[in-house]
Structures are given as structure tokens and as C-alpha cells.
Design a protein that fits this description.
The complex is a heterodimer of chains A (152) and B (235).
Chain A: H1 20-34, E1 36-37, E2 44-45, E3 50-51, E4 55-56, E5 62-71, E6 81-84, E7 87-88, H2 92-103, E8 114-120, H3 126-138, E9 143-150
Parallel strand pairs in A: 3-9, 5-8, 8-9
Antiparallel strand pairs in A: 2-5, 5-6, 6-7
Helix pairs in contact in A: 2-3
Chain B: H1 14-28, E1 29-30, E2 35-40, E3 59-64, E4 70-72, E5 75-77, H2 79-90, E6 102-105, H3 107-123, H4 128-147, E7 150-153, E8 158-163, H5 169-194, H6 199-202, H7 208-220, E9 225-228
Parallel strand pairs in B: 3-8, 8-9
Antiparallel strand pairs in B: 3-4, 4-5, 6-7
Helix pairs in contact in B: 2-5, 3-4, 4-7
The chains are: A alpha/beta (152), B alpha/beta (235).
């Protein structure tokens, strides 16, 4: 009779995975709370300039997105193009048409709650920016914001 | 007869389901909140009117040309110089002749004007200029009540940015950013001195008292930026 039994090994009890769902759910809720949905698919490449005096936008604000940059797909040309929300604008007039459609029959004061969010490539010249904004002014959509990168 | 035990539901696949959801959220969401610089476009006016004649000292003129070079008040400068000029534009000796007129206003003065314009706006209810002025003085009185006597910048003072059609967006943003940096620094200084709290804490706050403070700071250092028409503004 030996104290050190060399016989059959005691099998280790399996690690309980019962709490695994709880852990994963916790992670899940963390991500649901801290993140926001990606906006639209972008068809143009934008390298936003850096800035320091930028502020966070309330995520519930109603926004119309404008991207100005070179198309990622060469089929759309090689010059700078404007994408409004989901689609590339064929010309400047299309922006105004989109705004009219978006506004519907509402009054112009509705525009005060909508922010026109611009994401513009740093190399784009101001002529294009001005032309787009001219279309906005025609429709009285005057609130503008530029999405920029934090310089820190 | 033995009582039948209730069979436990197998929770083994719960983890899989949760993982699936987790991965879905990881893919479809993003962590970086967009940070923005806000601006308000000027309203469209139908008939072309000549811009009102403004005194040279009331305008801080910043010009960016097609090669992204900066001209501040007619002198070549760098982007970094703009901030100091903006601060000087708002805060300078009261008898200066090259910068906008500053008026030291106090409570009795505000009361006087309020009385005067109350009478006038009652007399001419159709003319809303009097009501506007009355409103402006009431705001000023609120500012004095909060921070005491202060130097008010002329309401004709403004910062103009003149751009070329070929100026890059990057340059425009850095000019705008530097102007805002100057104004924000002044506001932050005043905020810390008078309210004892950092400006960035209350700037985007939703608490009504904080918003009132921000309004006061904005009234003392108003943001008046105008994009002037460039010389080659066609097309």
C-alpha cells in the first residue's frame, strides 16, 4: 500500500463554460453602447485635413453627408467628384434636386435642424466647395460642418 | 411512480449566438465619432447690393491665394500668426486706431439704453430695428450682471477670409481653425477668470446654466467670420 498511487490518473474536471455566454453578452452590450453605426458607403477617397478646434457632433443630429474626393473606382473618372449621402452627384444641379427631394413639402425652418456634414479631401480646391455650397444656399440649407481629423 | 425531472434547456449554443451578434456589431459599427468644425453659410440674397462701407480698422482681412500663401492685413504671414492677430483684434488698448473700437459698458449705461429703446419700440411698433436694439442691450445687461463691466467690440467688427478659387481646402480649414483657436482661447480665459471652470467643459453642455454661461462668453467675444468674394469668383 503506497501513499503515492501511480495508478490511473484522476481526470481533471472540464472547465465550465456556463459563464461564457454572460461574458460575451457583456462584451456585446459594451460595443452596442460605445459605438455608432457606420454611415454610408463611400465611393470617393477622402483624406481630411487636421484641425484642433473641433467638437463632437451630437450623434442624434439629422445630417446630410457630402464627400468630395477622387472616386475609388476609376470607372467614375479621375477628377474630384461629389457624393451626396449614397450616390455620386452627376453634376452640381443634382445636389439641389436631392435637397428639394429631401425637404419634401416642409418649410425652410426644418433646415435649421439639419447639418450638412462635409468630408472634403485636403487637396480639393475651394472652387468645388463653393459650388456645392452655392447649391445649399439656393435651398436655404445654411448649417454646415466639416468633418476633420483631430491633430493630437 | 417517479416524478419526471424537468429537462434543462441546453444553453451551450448561447455563447455562439452571442458571439455572432458581437461580431455583427463589431463589423457594422465604428468607434470614432466624427469631430467637426461648424460654420454657417450666408443667406442667399436675390438682388445684388453693394456691401456697406466698413472702416478698415473694423476688419481683420485674411487672404489665401492660389499657392496657399497667407496675407494678413496686407502683410505676408504664416498660418500660425493668425491666432495672435485674432486675439489682438478682440483685445487691444481702448484708444487704438488700427483695431476695432472698444466700448467699456457698465450697468447704468445699459439701463439708460434699455429705457430709451423701450420707449422708442413702444412708439414705433412697426419698426423692428428698435426692438432689435432693445434686445441687444438686454443681452448686454445680462452679460454685465454676470461678469461686470467689460469692453465691448464694435458690432461692425468682423474677420474676413478671402480665398482664391484654387486655394486648397486644407488651407481654408487651417485658417478657419486658427481663427477659432484665437476666439476659443479668449473665451476660455474669460471663462476661467469669471466662472472658474474650463471652457471646454461647458461648451457643449446641455445644462441650462452652462448654456447661459456660453452665451455670455459668446456675446463678449462674438464669432463674426465672413467669406469675402474673391476677385476671380466666376465659375
Amino acid at each position: 500500500m503506497s501513499k503515492f498511487s501511480k495508478g490511473k490518473k484522476k481526470s481533471q474536471p472540464a472547465i465550465s463554460t456556463a459563464s461564457l455566454p454572460d461574458i460575451v453578452f457583456m462584451l456585446l452590450f459594451f460595443f452596442i453602447v460605445t459605438t455608432i453605426f457606420k454611415e454610408k458607403d463611400t465611393k470617393v477617397v477622402v483624406k481630411a485635413p487636421l484641425a484642433t478646434e473641433i467638437t463632437k457632433l451630437d450623434r442624434r443630429t439629422d445630417q446630410i453627408y457630402y464627400w468630395v474626393g477622387k472616386p475609388s473606382n476609376k470607372n467614375y473618372g479621375t477628377g474630384y467628384r461629389v457624393q451626396v449621402d449614397d450616390a455620386l452627384a452627376p453634376d452640381m444641379g443634382a445636389i439641389r434636386a436631392y435637397l428639394i427631394e429631401r425637404r419634401g413639402g416642409d418649410l425652410s425652418e426644418v433646415w435649421d435642424k439639419v447639418i450638412n456634414n462635409f468630408k472634403i479631401d485636403e487637396k480639393v480646391n475651394m472652387r468645388i466647395v463653393k459650388n456645392v455650397q452655392e447649391e445649399l444656399r439656393n435651398e436655404d440649407a445654411l448649417k454646415v460642418a466639416y468633418t476633420l481629423k483631430d491633430k493630437k | 411512480m417517479a416524478k419526471r425531472e424537468l429537462e434543462e434547456i441546453n444553453a451551450g449554443s448561447m455563447a455562439d449566438i452571442a458571439f455572432l451578434l458581437l461580431i455583427f456589431f463589431l463589423v457594422t459599427t465604428t468607434m470614432n465619432f466624427p469631430k467637426v468644425l461648424e460654420e454657417r453659410l450666408p443667406q442667399k440674397i436675390d438682388d445684388v447690393i453693394d456691401p456697406p462701407l466698413v472702416k478698415k480698422e473694423n476688419v481683420l482681412e485674411i487672404l489665401a491665394n492660389k499657392n496657399d500663401q497667407i496675407l494678413i492685413e496686407g502683410n505676408r504671414g504664416e498660418i500660425e500668426d493668425i491666432k495672435d492677430k485674432v486675439i489682438e483684434f478682440y483685445v487691444h488698448p481702448i484708444n487704438s486706431t488700427i483695431w476695432p473700437k472698444l466700448t467699456s459698458i457698465n450697468e447704468s449705461m445699459a439701463n439708460q439704453y434699455i429705457e430709451k429703446f423701450k420707449v422708442l419700440s413702444a412708439q414705433y411698433p412697426d419698426d423692428n430695428r428698435y426692438a432689435d436694439t432693445l434686445n441687444r442691450w438686454e443681452i448686454k445687461k445680462g452679460v454685465i450682471a454676470a461678469i461686470g463691466t467689460y469692453n465691448e467690440i464694435s458690432d461692425k467688427a468682423m474677420i474676413t477670409i478671402q480665398l482664391d478659387n484654387a486655394t486648397s481646402f486644407k488651407t481654408y480649414v487651417s485658417v478657419l481653425n486658427e481663427i477659432m483657436a484665437g476666439i476659443n482661447e479668449l473665451r476660455a480665459e474669460l471663462c476661467l477668470a469669471k466662472f472658474g471652470i474650463p471652457y471646454n467643459k461647458i461648451e457643449k453642455s446641455k445644462v441650462p446654466e452652462d448654456q447661459a454661461k456660453v452665451k455670455i462668453l459668446r456675446a463678449v467675444y462674438p464669432k463674426r467670420i465672413m467669406k469675402a468674394k474673391s476677385k476671380n469668383s466666376q465659375g
